[in-house]
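TL;DR need structure tokens for one chain.
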Amino acid sequence: MRGSIYAVVTLIAAAGWALPVAAQVEKNQTGTSLVSTQAQEKTPPYIAEYKTTYLLVLANGKTKTSEWTTLVSLDSEGRRLDARTDAPWRPVDTPVTHYHVYDPVAWTNTYWSVPGLHQAYEEKKLPSGSDRDPCPEAAILRERQAAQKAKNGASKQAQLNTIGLTQETPAQDQTVQKTAPRPKVDQHVHEDLGIKTIQGIEAQGIRDTATYAAGWMGNKTLSTFIMEFWLTSAPGIRGIPVLNITESPGRSKTTEELVKLTLGEPAMSFFQPPGGYEIVKGEEVRTECVNLQKLPPVPPPAQ
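>> reply
TL;DR here they are.
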């Protein structure tokens, strides 16, 4: 399970609704009273198993259902495993499990599949300016950005000076290109669903419903999107997804249910490829330095 739909619930992208839900609440804890409360308490280490059912409504009115299982593991240092196993299309096929491990300690994302090519792909993305990656080039990058911004501002002001205006003075006689206003969100409703017991676990839920006008996201007609999720709410174990439902009525519905929950520190082996798998390392990426060569050189000082 490599994707996540943790979009802010007030603006829900249509493409995200078909993705797995187990990682949503943990990766984006903003925008709701429930999430704000949960974010105050660190999610404890755990291992959870989920069953997901995806229902798709076809153009002819028929429905197509697919299922998969997901294993999620989180340790006290923030390492996270998402392992998704899709049900095979044919009984004779062997199920394949796709693994994704995010390690905030090593700043790596690692992917592999079982059965697979006995290889695990590892990518590292270091934050610029941190102790781990000072990224001295970042200072040059910022200098170039500031110089370019100043140069652009000076050029604009020079153009305005020719007609006796400043950047603070509106150009009354200039032609303003008007664009059609973007369609608005017709309605957004947030509901606190309170606390209830799900499979013997106390959970708190919220539901967000957004109705979009035709054309907002490429939709031809009025569209409604519903996101409902329930998190463990008992002190000491807050923030673990228990039940998640995402739905576009008349189009699709994804239901993810907790099957088994084990509290406690997972073994380190959960976050490592199987023995015999070759680690293929991708190019190390520094977030602020990656586009350094694409920027224009620093202009010489004004004479």
